[in-house]
């Protein structure tokens, strides 16, 4: 066995563990003028670190070209860059998050921030990391995300509302294969007027899928 294949990667070996990522994420700026219709919610540090750490353990982060689809404040991009991604492209539709993304990701050189619609992404990527709108405010607003990540990316890490589990699994099976499925509970901070508690818990499905395109 060669040395390279001995570990999940340099960055994992160098002790960039999940806790370190979580701590760094907790210091980042959050949404500027958050917009409910875009379902702007930051993935909580524990979930974001977990999603990307798992992807890294699967060999899909270090040295890879990564799409952060619907980047928001950049927590998933940040995690991937900490874990040695070769290049991350963070695509976010809301121009008001540009300053936040620039500030949060400023210590990395191999990041490209694109303000635009996910539907316009034409490049190919090794890996997608994606916590999209769930289509709860504007129906089907998640569909362009699913389409692009399965069309343009080989390995896909997708978080979605557990309520849509059957749909997500069926979709992923049509356009590739599901390599792992997990139920996780995420924590949503109070951000909009319809929220009544400081934090809401929400059951989510997290999948690792391989696209056939
Ligand atoms: N991925 C981030 C943000 C999740 S919220 C995180 O994990 O914290 C979903 C994000 O998708 C929001 O920032 C929203 O503005 C963005 N978004 C919504 N529709 C979009 C579209 N069509 N194209 C690109 N980004 C979009």
Describe what you observe in this structure:
By secondary structure, the protein is α/β, with parallel strands linked by helices. It contains 7 helices and 7 strands. It has a 7-stranded mixed β-sheet with strand order 3-2-1-4-5-7-6. Helix 2 packs antiparallel against helix 3 (45-57) and helix 3 crosses helix 4. The chain is globular and about 45 Å long. Residues 1-7 have low confidence and may be disordered. The structure holds S-adenosyl-L-homocysteine. S-adenosyl-L-homocysteine binds at residues 38-43, 48, 70-73, 75-76, 91-94, 117-118, 131-133, 141, 144.
Topology, pairings included?
Layout (H helix, E strand, L loop, with lengths): L9 H4 L4 H8 L19 H13 L7 E5 L5 H8 L4 E6 L5 H7 L6 E5 L9 E6 L12 H10 E9 L3 H10 L1 E14 L9 E13 L2
This protein binds S-adenosyl-L-homocysteine.
Strand order of the largest sheet: 3-2-1-4-5-7-6
Q: How many individual β-strands? A: 7
Radius of gyration, whole Å: 16 Å
> DSSP strand (E) fraction?
25-35%
Poorly predicted runs: 1-7
Tell the overall outline: globular
- Gap between N and C termini: 31 Å
Helix content: 25-40%
Helix-strand pattern, N to C?
HHHEHEHEEHEHEE
Bound ligands, named by name, code or SMILES: S-adenosyl-L-homocysteine
The helix tally amounts to: 7
* Biggest beta sheet summary: 7 strands, mixed
Overall pLDDT: 93
Determine the structural class based on helices, strands and strand pairing.
Answer: alpha/beta
Keywords for this entry:
213 residues, alpha/beta, seven-stranded mixed β-sheet, 7 strands, 28% helix, binds S-adenosyl-L-homocysteine
């Amino acid at each position: 066995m060669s040395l390279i294949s001995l570990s999940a990667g340099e960055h994992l070996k160098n002790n960039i563990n999940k806790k370190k990522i979580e701590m760094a994420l907790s210091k980042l700026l959050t949404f500027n003028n958050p917009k409910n219709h875009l379902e702007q919610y930051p993935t909580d540090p524990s979930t974001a670190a977990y999603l990307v750490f798992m992807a890294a353990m699967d060999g899909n982060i270090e040295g890879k070209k990564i799409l952060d689809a619907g980047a928001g404040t950049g927590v998933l991009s940040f995690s991937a860059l900490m874990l040695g991604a070769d290049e991350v492209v963070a695509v976010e539709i809301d121009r008001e998050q540009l300053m936040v993304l620039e500030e949060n990701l400023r210590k990395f050189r191999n990041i490209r921030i694109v303000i635009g619609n996910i539907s316009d992404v034409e490049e190919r990527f090794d890996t997608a990391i994606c916590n999209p709108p769930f289509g709860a405010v504007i129906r089907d607003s998640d569909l362009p995300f699913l389409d692009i990540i399965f069309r343009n990316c080989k390995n896909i890490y997708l978080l979605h509302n557990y309520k849509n589990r059957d749909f997500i699994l069926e979709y992923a099976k049509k356009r590739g294969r599901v390599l792992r499925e997990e139920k996780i509970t995420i924590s949503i901070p109070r951000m909009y007027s319809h929220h009544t508690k400081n934090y809401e818990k929400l059951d989510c499905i997290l999948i690792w899928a391989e696209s056939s395109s």
